[in-house]
Amino acid sequence: MDNPICVTCGMQYAAPRSDCPICEDERQYVPPSGQQWTDFATLQREHEALIKPEGDRITGIACTPKFGIGQRALFVETDSGNFLWDLSAYLDDTIADHITARGGITGIAISHPHYYTTCVEWARTFDVPVYLHEGDRQWIGRPDDRIELWSGQTKQVGDGLTLVNLGVHFTGGTVLHWSGGERGRGALLSGDIVQVIPDRKFVAFMYSYPNLIPERPPVVRHAAEILAGYRFEAIYGAWWDAVVREDGYDVVQRSAKRYLEFVS
């Protein structure tokens, strides 16, 4: 099949292959049933759009039933232009029409390779760049001219929208800080670089979530130091309703402190 998509993680590749490097990496897994593939057209036949509010001017976008890892994209509406954070593999006319009706998007950014998925399909649909950190360039499954690699610790992608490379989970592991979010109190869109957990008083930092490999202490310490320079009330994680609604800055700092105390 052209541009096959891994059923387990959702990564789309430029050509047929027998393996999925993302799933064979120690942070992910190949299920006991073995490697399985699908394609974009099959996804559209077997799933349908799921769109619902997640916060103030933030809308979640994914599909039902869930596919792959199960994360959802976040459509962020700002005064200077809309932006898309992280991605679900699924995209159809319902999603495209919803985004277009709200003014479209100026770009897409993705937190880490597990969510690169069908980014080329999204970028071509909306004719926008996809910002990926160059530290994870080796994981790109389907190269395309719309993929824009960036380097360093930060990149501005809009008025009040800053990509921040924390290096958690992957070398290029990135979060999006929106200074205008939560009515000016700030929002951190974190994917699972900073993982929102059931106890909303804390967040988690892991090298691998499914395989329960903890993140390296120096990486967590460095990430907390970087985020000390930003203020944010809410944290939007990778999953539906995975949102810390208040005291986000303090939640991150005390979580990092607790983590380092446990592993030291």
Automatic annotation (TrEMBL):
Every Metallo-beta-lactamase domain range: 70-230
InterPro entries: Metallo-B-lactamas, RibonucZ/Hydroxyglut_hydro
Name of the molecule in the record: Metallo-beta-lactamase domain-containing protein
Species: Amycolatopsis deserti
